[in-house]
Amino acid sequence: MTHFYKYNLNFRNAFLTAARNFPQREIVYRDKKRYTFSEFYDRVSRLCNGLKEIGVKEGDVVGVIDWDTYVYMESYFAVPMSGATLHTINIRYPPELIYLTMNYANDKYVIVRDEFVPILEKNAPLFDFVKGWIVYSEDGKPVETTLSPKFEYEDVIKKGKCDPPDLDEEMRATIFFTSGTTGMPKGVTFTQKQLILHALSLSSSMKYRPLTLTENDVFMSLVPMFHVHSWGMPYIAFMNGNKYVLPGRYEVKTILELIKNEKVTFSTMVPAILYMILNDKAVEDYRDYLKGWKVIIGGSALPKGLALKAISYGITVVGGYGLSETCPVLTISVMNDYTAKMKYEEALDHLISAGLPIPLVNLRVVDPAGKDVPWDNKTVGEVIARSPWLTKEYYNDPEKTEELWKGGWLHTGDLGVVDEFGYLHIVDREKDAVKSGGEFIPTIILENAISEVKGVGEVAIVGAPDPKWGERPVAFIVKTGEVSEKEIYDHLNEYVKLGRIQKWWIPDKIYFIESMPKTSTNKIDKKVLREKLG
């Protein structure tokens, strides 16, 4: 009797086809390693088996401490394929927070690049919950360490090839911790099915203008691999047969060289990374190689001034939006029936917004009573969402989970408006919003306006305590050239005349600073700026 086969949407079933259909596509790590999808999948299969050979069991947590390398890329696939859970450890956390998150996640095995070994050795007694350290060095030499038991990464791979198990699609694939912009980091988890559905949905959205990605595009994600699955780009590239470039540690010169030599055509990043690249003194030497580069900006709002600078180099930039809790992508700013009739420059205000929901995302902006706000580009509400890849809970935190999923919708804590064409515009984080005289001042709109002034680089608006109004906005600005307070205030007053901002939104003070404080995921850390005011 023939029995129906239940097809699990797991890593094994999702990625077998890619290895078969695109055997000659390349994965490139800096100028140090270059290999084909076929060779990559073979190593992934061997690592999957090798992990089991050294004692990794289904459900165990395997942490990774590394830059964006080929080892990390292999771990992205092999760890979940083995039935274990991949913990993408935030290497920009201070050592004590690294320990806390590893302990909380209950990491049983850890894959570690050699340069991070000394930090772990100093605190070795704290890591008594770790059953094995899998170490590697780029030069291939054995890593000398007091960490025990120690396994060499390449030795684990040599343990033999396996046919990855056909796991239940609801098996947990990843765990990581939020960047902690509003308190202690919170753990989020995702299943194999969730990661695959997210990758398929986002992939289908990226074929639309102005991105129009095909199998000929060359990917280089500049979202750290420890941060929300690098927005799913490693999975999307492998499924669709896109050459994938890994930059290792982020250094502008290396990034520009990779764009030039590997003919990179598509990247994802937060605004601070694009700002860093376009303001590097070497960028002019690479102007010809940046033409045609397509970039999705997320993590925080894409300032119009930065978008215009990118366009001057021939770069196509669009906005996107999501959270750690949402795997992460909910929206991207591709063209729809309305904006498709416009030229890219005409549609820019829409395309630098958070964008349109990607397939399978049900997204709403609601008032305090839970009713949808009108699509008028001015009525502010909270962004709430449903989709099949949202985290089900905060790890071991039922109280925060209850807040997150109040009323059966995931509450983002972000304030937004929807324009007449259906594009979402984030105007503030609920916790970052400046509330003056009982009314919210949308800081992102102000930051966007100031960013258009020549000589202005990064901008952040925060609330300063005020005895009369409760809070008043102040601006922190990093200069890229000569610019005065008067020029900024003149520009904002022109915006008032045009009706694009209100007079009372204009910051009371402007502070020029050398550099912006950043979180571990390269977002501007407004907590630190508020402390400066304190």
Present the secondary structure layout.
Elements: H1 11-21, E1 26-29, E2 33-36, H2 37-53, E3 61-65, H3 70-81, E4 85-88, H4 95-105, E5 107-113, H5 117-122, E6 132-136, E7 150-152, H6 153-157, E8 172-177, E9 187-191, H7 192-205, H8 233-240, E10 244-246, H9 252-262, E11 266-269, H10 271-278, H11 287-290, E12 294-297, H12 304-312, E13 316-322, E14 329-332, H13 348-351, E15 356-357, E16 362-366, E17 381-386, H14 398-404, E18 410-418, E19 424-429, E20 434-436, E21 439-441, H15 443-451, E22 456-466, E23 470-479, H16 485-497, E24 509-512, H17 526-533
Helix pairs in contact: 1-2, 1-8, 2-3, 7-8
Architecture overview:
With 534 residues, this protein is of the alpha/beta class. It has a domain at 433-533: ANL, C-terminal domain (GMP Synthetase, Chain A, domain 3, 2-Layer Sandwich). Helix content is 29%, strand content 23%. The strands form six sheets. The chain has a seven-stranded mixed β-sheet. The chain is globular, with a radius of gyration of 23 Å. The model has no long low-confidence stretch (mean pLDDT 94).
Features of the shown structure:
534 residues, alpha/beta, GMP Synthetase, Chain A, domain 3, 7-stranded mixed sheet, 17 helices
Low-confidence runs: none
Strand order, sheet with most strands: 7-6-5-3-4-8-9
Query: Termini separation (Å)?
Result: 75 Å
Radius of gyration based on Cα positions: 23 Å
Please tell me the overall pLDDT. 94
CATH fold field value of the domain at 433-533: GMP Synthetase, Chain A, domain 3
The helix-and-strand class reads alpha/beta
Strand content: 15-25%
CATH homologous superfamily caption of the domain at 433-533: ANL, C-terminal domain
Overall shape: it is globular
- CATH architecture descriptor text of the domain at 433-533: 2-Layer Sandwich
Count every beta strand, where a strand is a DSSP E run of 2 or more residues.
24
Largest sheet: 7 strands, mixed
Tally of contiguous helical segments:
17
| Helical residues, percent | 25-40%
Task: Kindly provide the name of the CATH class of the domain at 433-533.
Answer: Alpha Beta
